[in-house]
Amino acid sequence: MTDNNSPPGSPKVNPDHNSEANPLPKDDSSLENIVRRFQDSMSLAKKHKFWETQPVGQFKDAGDTSLPEGPIEPPTPLSEVKQEPYNLPSPYEWTTCDMDSEETCNEVYNLLKNNYVEDDENMFRFNYSKEFLRWALRPPGYYKSWHIGVRAKTSKKLVAFITGVPARIRVRDEVVKMAEINFLCVHKKLRSKRLAPVMIKEVTRRVHLENIWQAAYTAGVVLPTPITTCQYWHRSLNPKKLIDVGFSRLGPRMTMSRTIKLYKLPDQPATPGFRKMELRDVPAVTWLLRNYLSQFVVSPDFDENDVEHWLLPTEDVVDSYLVESPKTHDITDFCSFYTLPSSILGNQNYSILKAAYSYYNVSTKTPLLQLMNDALIVAKKKDFDVFNALDVMHNESFLKELKFGPGDGQLHYYLYNYRIRNALRTSELGLVLL
Ligand code: MYA
Asked: Does domain 31-221 correspond to CATH entry 3.40.630.30?
């Protein structure tokens, strides 16, 4: 594994350079899978000096059904929450990153652009845009104090980052106030110095100060203990470029022209009444989405403000489409994807891979397969190179048929200070984190 421990193929994980242009389901006994299972089992045996001290499901407790579901530790009185920040090594200092400031936003953007998640072979690195970061970090009720940076005291250079945003997450029939933790990043030159645990403790402290005691996060690394482990699937939209940059390979017995033909899509969506979501649709989309998400074990509890923020289209950040019945004008179906490009490292011809990531999709009248094919069509028209989707919710019902190929990376989902008795099936998960 590389220094960030991220296999390719998931969002903390990044594009899959191994998926074949002619996607085939992965063989479980492939060397790659055997190696991964071995690494995962090593990771289970591994000591986690930091994570062993935290209120998270511990590996030793896996399968112990006598432990109750819910908070692992009760909240402590706010007066007992540490009032001062944790100590950093003396050359560094804490900073709160004001994402409204163009200058700070640029610094965060550049730190992540140069140091955030890469695939195992260091061919691609996430390149979250500034607009995306502003969107991801300023949802309704966000706290500036949860956008935490570390600077070098002398140069003032930003060298590390971690963020939280507030969310209501439903676990079975309990709606829990949580922080969604993301964008943990330590500059490449400062790795393996145990800075990450200090950053995690500091964000935890600041979340506690707001009287919030649970969190949700994802990672490409195995930590104690995933609530579920998802796989990324990739649908080529621009197969020639994907092959040229090493994201995918030409399938056996395939030529480039046959591959291009295989992935060709119609010019226009097929569903009558398929259109972009608008502000006036917020109530109907909220209703549709709440109904739909209620069937999953873990999902966000979105209200209209959340839907307006997270799902109303924002150029180059998030796209949402819906089906308005031409007859009744009812909003019957919905699909969305977010924009997350990756830098292509060391390629002569291309520097950016434009990727769309499936977000929340709801079908009540239009078959999900047809809805998602329409999503692929609009993504292709917007010049995305690839459309990625996790095997969460009902996504498995369309992945193979719509010519998605399985990625070789995994994305692990975690809850902090909340125990789930048994790991979930990926189809029981109704949560997509950015
Ligand atoms: S996931 C994205 C993470 N970012 C990257 O992969 C970018 C590239 N990599 C880096 O910048 C560094 O390698 C990072 C680690 C910063 C990841 N999540 O400082 P260290 C543990 C949690 O010496 P470094 C995302 O953003 C590791 O197991 N822990 O290591 C969600 C070890 O602990 P232990 C991680 O490589 C983040 C310790 O850190 C991760 O220099 C959710 C080593 O520290 C990871 N991705 O830095 C954070 N990677 O010994 C948790 C390594 O015990 C939030 N480690 O094994 C928890 C909830 C908090 C709020 C609670 C509120 C109530």
From this structure: yes
